[in-house]
Amino acid sequence: MGFEPSSRAQELIGRVEDFLRTEIEPIEGEIHTAIRAADDPWQPLPAFKDLQAKAKKQGLWNLFLPPSEHGNEQYGASSEEGLSNLDYAPIAELTGRSFLAPYVFNCNAPDTGNMEVLLRYGSSEQKQQWLEPLLDGAIRSAFCMTEPDVASSDATNMAATAVVDGDEVVINGRKWWSTGVGHPDCELLIFMGLTDPDAHRYARHTMVLVPRSTPGVKVERLLPAMSRYDEPHGHGEVSFTDVRVPAANILVGPGRAFEIAQGRLGPGRVHHCMRLIGLAEKSLELALQRGTTRTAFGKPLVNLGGNRERIADARIAINQARLLVLQTAYLLDTKGLAGALSEVSQIKVAVPRMAQDVIDMAIQLHGGGGLSDDFPLAAAWTSARALRLADGPDEVHRGVVAKIELSKYTKESK
Amino acid sequence: MGFEPSSRAQELIGRVEDFLRTEIEPIEGEIHTAIRAADDPWQPLPAFKDLQAKAKKQGLWNLFLPPSEHGNEQYGASSEEGLSNLDYAPIAELTGRSFLAPYVFNCNAPDTGNMEVLLRYGSSEQKQQWLEPLLDGAIRSAFCMTEPDVASSDATNMAATAVVDGDEVVINGRKWWSTGVGHPDCELLIFMGLTDPDAHRYARHTMVLVPRSTPGVKVERLLPAMSRYDEPHGHGEVSFTDVRVPAANILVGPGRAFEIAQGRLGPGRVHHCMRLIGLAEKSLELALQRGTTRTAFGKPLVNLGGNRERIADARIAINQARLLVLQTAYLLDTKGLAGALSEVSQIKVAVPRMAQDVIDMAIQLHGGGGLSDDFPLAAAWTSARALRLADGPDEVHRGVVAKIELSKYTKESK
Amino acid sequence: MGFEPSSRAQELIGRVEDFLRTEIEPIEGEIHTAIRAADDPWQPLPAFKDLQAKAKKQGLWNLFLPPSEHGNEQYGASSEEGLSNLDYAPIAELTGRSFLAPYVFNCNAPDTGNMEVLLRYGSSEQKQQWLEPLLDGAIRSAFCMTEPDVASSDATNMAATAVVDGDEVVINGRKWWSTGVGHPDCELLIFMGLTDPDAHRYARHTMVLVPRSTPGVKVERLLPAMSRYDEPHGHGEVSFTDVRVPAANILVGPGRAFEIAQGRLGPGRVHHCMRLIGLAEKSLELALQRGTTRTAFGKPLVNLGGNRERIADARIAINQARLLVLQTAYLLDTKGLAGALSEVSQIKVAVPRMAQDVIDMAIQLHGGGGLSDDFPLAAAWTSARALRLADGPDEVHRGVVAKIELSKYTKESK
Amino acid sequence: MGFEPSSRAQELIGRVEDFLRTEIEPIEGEIHTAIRAADDPWQPLPAFKDLQAKAKKQGLWNLFLPPSEHGNEQYGASSEEGLSNLDYAPIAELTGRSFLAPYVFNCNAPDTGNMEVLLRYGSSEQKQQWLEPLLDGAIRSAFCMTEPDVASSDATNMAATAVVDGDEVVINGRKWWSTGVGHPDCELLIFMGLTDPDAHRYARHTMVLVPRSTPGVKVERLLPAMSRYDEPHGHGEVSFTDVRVPAANILVGPGRAFEIAQGRLGPGRVHHCMRLIGLAEKSLELALQRGTTRTAFGKPLVNLGGNRERIADARIAINQARLLVLQTAYLLDTKGLAGALSEVSQIKVAVPRMAQDVIDMAIQLHGGGGLSDDFPLAAAWTSARALRLADGPDEVHRGVVAKIELSKYTKESK
């Protein structure tokens, strides 16, 4: 009853917690400082690679993988091993407490989503070539969907092209917010582009696997997200000029991109939201620590003005948000995406906003320190804010929730 | 997994739903109209008594009763029969959709709380005299705690006195917001007053069973709550002037009032909050019906401006609130009040505010109709608003949540 | 500079303040109690009539009248006497502090708007017959526009008919929220109805003066607004069945209703908003009085939790709202309605919401007392809430503001 | 009447507007790009120096200077030349539309505040040495008040010391958020430190003029404010180790720091707030441009969901905030700081929050672009967010407003 994790998940949660406390937290500050001080912050640090090796060795690796319903046992996603969404959720929450952790455990976006896509939709060859090294952590990947020149909140606006030309696909256009493309190990781009403008609205686009080294692929620049470049992963603007790859690099088939994207959405949003809940929880902890140890006007900060009420409101908001995400995970597990469509959009609206507000409160309690990088709050804020746009802006998700709500009342048009 | 009700609860939920749809909803409007038109709106209508008789006959009666841990099998609260908080919660939600339903099913506050108190803390004699007719629906009761002359949000402020004088208790003082006291069948008042001002802060007060007909008891007036008198139950201001009852009418013993009150709180707040969730859900339904059937500026209302976003936000808010209440019910069932103290206060803050906002939105979508009594929305709003003060104002509950949160960080004083 | 009133206005403000303090406030509570206790609360009390007589004698009467630009000197609206919107605004604020005051000074809606309409658009005969007794306070009037069967937020939806038939007009249909129609002195209804469905959208409707005693006029019922009937004025639902009045009762001419309504809007909304600011200011004062004189947990309420912050926020919100209304009044005075269209809608959105929030805060600080009628807060809340729908819902006014904002950027369609 | 600027101010406003449109806006983007691309972003660009020279030549220079009440005519602050707060306010709003403009016109914080301090409180020698080159734009200055080790929201917490030792002052301690200290021309630090811990709470601290080149002064690091370093001005953490300067460098006298700080506050906060209003106004314009030119789901963005309502709310919020700041400026001009204490704190609470919300809305309408630096929105957001802490956190200012509000009701202690 309730949303308690299985005993296997419980054991993993305990080990992830230990790892965070003993391996990551003690050196996290140093790593961030080292990145900032580095001549080239886009080179991953050896200390970071060491952490990955330790996590892998302890089996705290690729925990995001779902139970295998697709015969992917050889990739570690056997039904014995894969965790349900509900079981993985608390692990995602824990990894969200640290900006390093998702990478340390090979559980970071967009690689997780890309691996899921390959797992579910990739051919044997595609899996062998790309999924294996991704699962191994040997390479990184990016997802090239959003475009600078159109309102990409309406994904059918996407204008970059993927034209089948004999046994090749020719790719042209410009993408941005290709997260991870700044990393030197990023070797795979999953590109989504327009193939058949005359097909049904949701059958026009194709997903193609594009090796980053293909001629015509150019990372034009790396973009700051609310002033942060998020090195060494980064967010890129990428141009594709007459890029040619074999037609065998198409995922599933031409015009199938939306179908594939659908399958990627549910768990990905649960992961994002659970990580944000971890971040909000961490921020509340920092607020409590600061508020109980600093003094102004003769009292601990926490006893001034409305600070206690804000702490209570933060607790209430976090708890409500977590339950909604767990419920969504549970629905995904038991009813599939079709049974959780509204909820997946609900969490995407509720959680980033909640996190942004909780973090804002924590910043305020930290005074000037909260604005600096001496605490992870400024970075946390950025992360929550960006998620109100990434993966669909709040407004689009509210539209989805409303549409489903209204469908009970009317044969309603849009 | 999740918060699904047991199969027994599921079956009861279905029957309550049917009863609401077939027995209550078709005549609800008429009953409210009849009350408003009555010469004496404080006389319960025969139609209402008929509904009670039907519900009782169908076994949809006293469903709020907890599983018996106290040997109260003879009162229907056998472990086979009593529902857990988690199982009763969806029934409470259903009854909250109608202002009549809680009374029809003998599941209305404050009688439920009073019956629970008698069940847990009453002597055999007290149970026989008062609990039996209450369970039977033959009489009604009120709870006399809040006082007009002190800030009762701090319950230790209570100044009305219950002085033990030999084998009698002498009661003096003034109470208000004694809900239910306007009903002609109200025969029992549970009075809470100061007995020993020198005892520990939480051991000064005593609970006494006071027959309403005792000399010196006077209902001074009936109070409107945000302009509604809520006939035929009402909220009374009651004066006690040298009221004498046998010392045997004391519950448990002198100075034990806070201890008893504690035990009454958890389930009572879950009930209140679940009923409000039912009310919010009903209000959202009304908003959707109105919004899809009325037209302005050439479109259904729901397609104007931010209306769809507001509907989405309402759905998200209701779902989050419901999950938090279910989680609280689950904690009460599995860890007792001590394990759910923060959550009980969390729901008391979150749910009435959420309901008030959802109802406000629904009113706005109904235009002038929303302000009138042609829809249950104005009454719904009052109900939610009052709950932000009744049973402890939001601010006090936020204080409890913050205190618990802070206790992890500091040996903090208040 | 700034928004200081003229010296003449300053003098009137002082006298209105004195009148409120010495004549109205001391007996206001008694009057409300007397209304509630009356056998027939719809009969105005002698005490109230006495107050009107005093105010009239002191020249604190019809102060809402604008400077005469229309040769209406005989009605007291000479340019020497009429106050600008900016000068009247602080008087309106003062009258808003008391529910009686607007009536005592003959400055209450909808009579003020109706008098303005007659002043500006009435023929000499219409003025003599209706304006004179209204200015004198001998009769009351109502405005019949909103309809129960259509979304009246889109005024072009209005479906009740005013058909010219020779030298008569035939009126049919149903109106509601006809405020003031419950008063025994209400003799005039200004009816707005559809005359020519084929004309331009804003030229279809006509305003007609309908004596309440005309055969076919029936007050079907009086409506509670958020549970209050607002006796002795009330809000009525009125049916019109083959009501015939002379064509001479048409205001200006057939199809001119929207044009007339326009002229009525600006000042009326400034009045409503300034009265609400007075009500918010009064509510804040009550909150401060209660908060400094009641004690809980060993402190004055005001020093608990976030109460001081809420008081600061209320002060900031009231001040901002007042400045926006004064600026709107100033624009109306200097640039006319065309130069203040956006601002008139801005205040209509901002002020009732602000007042509702400030009053809600004050209620919360009053505990159970705030819900009762022992303080004017429950009634104040109703008044603010209703204004979020009356005279156009928030959503419609936000639409106006946005439309004007967008007009700078685009030849925008609707 | 109203808050219209004087004709002299009107003329200046027009010229500042022209300068912004023709000189700054066309090259603003390039300058920001050049700073980001520079090997050393801390070196001011020649293009920027050129702009300053042009502005100076046109007399658009030091416009922040108040009318001289202190015989400072020689510094250009003659009563003929100095602008009242109300007259300068719209100019400050204009400069707030561009991050460069305040510097171009020599009207940027903290130099303006520092110049005002020298103007009002400096000796002739101090003025000659520091004020003249500051007014000339030849040097820059910083203000060293906030400390990393104490909650500086309570300024009496300041622990860095300024000890008088014969004819010298010895300074020790650590300050941060010393804005402007990153600039190569920054030559003056105004340091505020503890001199006499036994004096009255507000007479313990001293302000000292410290040349940046004094031995013992060290800029330990430059701090990011919500991830931005704001080159080439920056925010520094500065250590002072046995720094010795002549006692003649003390402003006014030992223990007079709070007195001086007071005088600096009012106008400074009006400037900050008006600049933020300019920034909010600019952000709303960008939102409208983007919203009318981008299309999704077949409509311009502005016609989707609640976007129009959000635009209306932004307009209403900006207008209310501007009026409150203008009113505050007017009070400062007519009643001095003592007559505007509450208002100065009111704007400090209301305006940054308003600006943060409006900018957040504009970001959301820009999608991914809003997160990037392709639009000034991410930087605008940072600026508004930081102002909720800089110059006193919201919570402290709410406390001031509440204290003043309460002072009418009670001889209240804090």
TrEMBL record, chains A, B, C, D:
Cofactor: FAD
Highest taxon, organism lineage: Bacteria
GO cellular component, one term: cytoplasm
Domain Acyl-CoA oxidase/dehydrogenase middle: 142-243
Domain Acyl-CoA dehydrogenase/oxidase N-terminal: 10-137
Keyword list, A-Z: FAD, Flavoprotein, Oxidoreductase
Ranges for domain Acyl-CoA dehydrogenase/oxidase C-terminal: 258-403
GO MF terms, alphabetically ordered: acyl-CoA dehydrogenase activity; flavin adenine dinucleotide binding
InterPro entries reported for this sequence: Acyl-CoA_dehydrogenase, Acyl-CoA_Oxase/DH_mid-dom, Acyl-CoA_Oxase/DH_mid-dom_sf, AcylCo_DH-like_C, AcylCo_DH/oxidase_C, AcylCoA_DH/ox_N, AcylCoA_DH/ox_N_sf, AcylCoA_DH/oxidase_NM_dom_sf
Parts of the chain that traverse the membrane: none
Any single biological process term in GO: fatty acid beta-oxidation using acyl-CoA dehydrogenase
Subunit architecture: Homodimer.
Entry similarity comment: Belongs to the acyl-CoA dehydrogenase family.
Protein name: Acyl-CoA dehydrogenase
